[in-house]
Design a protein that fits this description.
single chain; 186 residues; alpha+beta; Alpha-Beta Plaits; six-stranded antiparallel sheet; two-stranded antiparallel ribbon; 6 helices; 8 strands
Length: 186
């Protein structure tokens, strides 16, 4: 191996310096929930940026409006060159492409995509707040985050994901979703 090969081995290529690490929460509770998560992941990777890691899929009762079907949720870590406003616009387009209808707050939906974190940036705009303002209240977001990065520090609350989880007031059960259940249903 020549010097160039040795240097590449010691210093592997890094992601593009202009790419930002973003944590997204995807979820839905109507239709083929498992399919919709997969389709959302595919469209996100095509239109927003590559997915570097993803949590397991978790199932939980609906939060905020509990008289509806259970949700499947998953956290994705993507790398994007899109700024937060453009990223949100693309996410809303993806939801629309997938048939998302916004009938009522916290209502049933086939897909929901939230930006949880955009690097460690703070964004406070009329239609966009990053970090997501209710992360600390929602185990369905914290448990998949915990799986991916328990030491990540929330830039607003200055606590780790582990600490946020440990003090979360949410009492809804969050459990890993078995794809065996999905495969047996087909």
């Amino acid at each position: 191996m020549g010097l160039e090969g040795e240097i590449k081995e010691l210093y592997p290529p890094k992601r593009d310096l202009f790419m930002k690490e973003v944590y997204l929460l995807i979820g839905g509770n109507i239709g083929d929930r498992f399919y919709f998560l997969g389709e959302a992941s595919r469209l996100i990777s095509q239109q927003c940026g590559p997915i570097s890691r993803s949590s397991a899929i978790y199932e939980t009762a609906a939060w905020g409006k509990e008289d509806q079907p259970a949700f499947l949720n998953q956290v994705l870590i993507i790398h994007t060159v899109l700024d937060p406003v453009k990223l949100m616009a693309v996410i809303l387009e993806i939801e629309q492409q997938m048939g998302r209808l916004r009938k009522e707050k916290n209502g049933e939906r086939n897909i929901d995509i939230d930006i949880l974190y955009y690097e460690n940036e703070l964004v406070e705009l009329p239609n966009l707040t990053i970090p997501h303002p209710r992360i600390y209240m929602r185990k369905f977001a914290l448990i998949p985050l915990l799986e991916l990065n328990p030491a990540k520090i929330d830039p607003v609350l200055h606590k780790t994901i582990q600490e946020l989880h440990d003090t979360c007031p949410d009492s809804l059960e969050v459990r890993k979703y078995s794809t065996d259940v999905q495969n047996n249903a087909r």
